[in-house]
Structures are given as C-alpha cells and as structure tokens.
Write a structure and sequence with these properties.
Number of strands: 3
Radius of gyration: 29 Å
Organism: Trichuris suis (pig whipworm)
Oligomer: single chain
Largest sheet: 3 strands, mixed
Pfam families: DDE_1 (PF03184)
Order of helices and strands: HEEEHHHHHHHHHH
Distance between the termini: 86 Å
Domain DDE-1: 2-130
Strand content: under 5%
GO molecular function, one term: DNA binding
Structural class: mainly alpha
Strand order of the largest sheet: 1-3-2
Shape: extended
Protein name: DDE-1 domain-containing protein
C-alpha cells in the first residue's frame, strides 16, 4: 500500500496533470483514477491530491470490464502450465524425480516459459476478449467461437499430456490422471489477488529464501566447473539444426536463430585458438624436441 501511495503521489498525479495540459484542459480540472477493488490498494479516500481522486470498482465486477480477464490470461496460463508439466514429465523420463525437478525449474526458466506462453496467445483470443466487452466493435460472433476454441486447446493439451504419461514407465507418474491435469489448469481460478502476511510469516519467507539461495549458489559452483567448450557447443548446434530440420513444426526463423547462435560461437573460436597457442606453444615445441632426440638414440 505504501508503494502504491508513493506511485500515486509522485508519478500518477504529475503525469495525469501533464496529459491534461497537453490536450488543452484547464489546470484545475478534476482527474479520476479507477482502481480494482483489491486489498493491496490503499483506501480510495486517502488517494487525493490537487483535484486528482481515486475510486474503486464495486467488488467482483473488475473482471467484467478488463479484457485480460475475458480469456487472455486464461490462455496464457494454460500454455505456461502445459510447458511446465511437459518439462516435468521429460525430467522424470530422464531419471530426475519430481522434487529435484522443482528445484531445477528456476525463476529464470519460468520467466522464459511465461514469455513463450504470452507469445503463443493467438490474435483470435485477444479479439474475442474485446468482443465480449465491446460487441459493437465486431460484427462477427467471435465471443462464443473464442471460448470454444480455448476449451478445445486445453482439451488437446490434456490429451497430449495423458498420452505422454502413459508412455512413461515411472510409477510415480503413471498414477497421473485427467482430473489431476484439469486441476492444475484450474487451480488458481479462485486464488486471491493479495495476501495479508503476519510478521512471523514474512520472517519465515526470508529465512527460506536465504536457505534456497545458499543451495542455488552451491549448485552454481558445481555447474560452473563443468563448462562446455566452444567447439563442443558448435557441434551441438549442428546436431540441433539437423534434428530440428526433421520436425514439421519447425520454422525457418527457428533454424535461423540456431544459426545465429552458432555464428557467435564461431566468432569466439579464433580468439580461443590464439590463447591456447600462446599458452602451450613452448610446451608443444619442447615435447617435439624431446621426441626427435629420443628417435636419434641408438637402440630405440
């Protein structure tokens, strides 16, 4: 709440007032900020400065006037959860237990997965969301069509995941059923948007984060000792390109992205070669002289 109050006083009010001046409104004109009825926001009564006021929507109606809550976020979340479950099943298939996978699925990996899920949200989904809010803007009945399309997408995700599960020998995963996958897709439907934590809960979270960070640091030390060489990485890129070219879903842009990475690696190779040559030149020359001398000794 303190952060939001500071944002309102120091950022929103000056920016809103500047916008009013740009569009030719009077300096003292009233400005109204509409807010979600969310516990994380301070009371609207204290958000007032220089004729700038705030007002909250009635409870439980915010989702009716926000396009993201008309199926866009649902689409993005379902795609992210599908990626997470596929990664988990792949890890189990390679001998990694679920608990270990959860530790390896870092915030960085999650951020990439969320970004990819957002990019995968279709234009039809976003158009359908706006159609629900503003039917007059689109003459076609896309709202019902969008809902059916999204449901079919989740059904397909569930079916594909179940086929993957049934192909795995692991007993811990073979018990996964359709109802479990559907629960994952729907688990945050009624989740609160804000929490009120006690001092003890906050302290426990901080201590757990410190312990988790120490564990991550130890794993980073181990992983940094196993650095893959540039030459080997280039070979891996070649193998990856060869494998991706055999997949129907791969686009030319996907292949080009791997080629660009390979080019960057190849640009580093001459530098690495020079470094190795300078550091080992005398050693190699000494070994060659020793080998030549040994060949000239009688009896060898």
């Amino acid at each position: 709440r303190d952060i939001f109050s500071q944002w309102f006083q120091k950022h929103f009010v000056p920016a809103a007032r500047a916008h009013c001046r740009e569009v030719g409104l009077q300096n003292g004109c009233k400005i109204l900020l509409l807010l979600d009825n969310c516990p994380a926001h301070p009371p609207a009564e204290i958000l007032s400065k220089n004729s700038v006021y705030a007002m909250c929507f009635p409870p439980n109606v915010t989702s009716l006037i926000q396009p993201h809550d008309q199926g866009i976020l649902r689409s993005m979340k379902s795609k992210y959860k599908n990626t997470f479950l596929n990664c988990m099943l792949s890890a189990v298939d390679n001998g990694v237990n679920v608990e270990r996978f959860r530790k390896q699925f870092s915030m960085k990996v999650a951020e990439y997965a969320v970004a990819n899920a957002w990019d995968a949200v279709t234009k039809k989904t976003t158009t359908g969301a706006w159609h629900n809010l503003w039917p007059a803007a689109n003459r076609h009945d896309l709202g019902e069509q969008r809902d059916n399309t999204e449901d079919m997408t989740e059904e397909k995700m569930t079916a594909d995941l179940l086929r993957y599960v049934n192909s795995l020998p692991s007993e811990s995963i073979s018990k996964l059923e359709e109802v479990d996958i559907e629960e994952v897709f729907n688990i945050d439907n009624e989740a609160p948007t804000a929490f009120s934590l006690t001092d003890g809960e906050i302290a426990e979270m901080v201590l757990n984060d410190c312990e988790h960070n120490r564990s991550d640091d130890e794993e980073d030390v181990v992983s940094s000792a196993k650095r893959v060489s540039t030459q080997k990485t280039v070979k891996m890129c070649n193998k990856l390109i060869e494998a991706l070219e055999q997949r129907a879903f791969t686009t030319e842009q996907d292949i080009m992205a791997i080629y660009k990475i390979k080019e960057k690696l190849l640009q580093q190779t001459p530098w690495l070669t020079r470094q190795i040559t300078l550091s080992e030149a005398f050693k190699n020359a000494a070994e060659q002289r020793a080998s030549t001398s040994a060949e000239g000794v009688p009896g060898n």
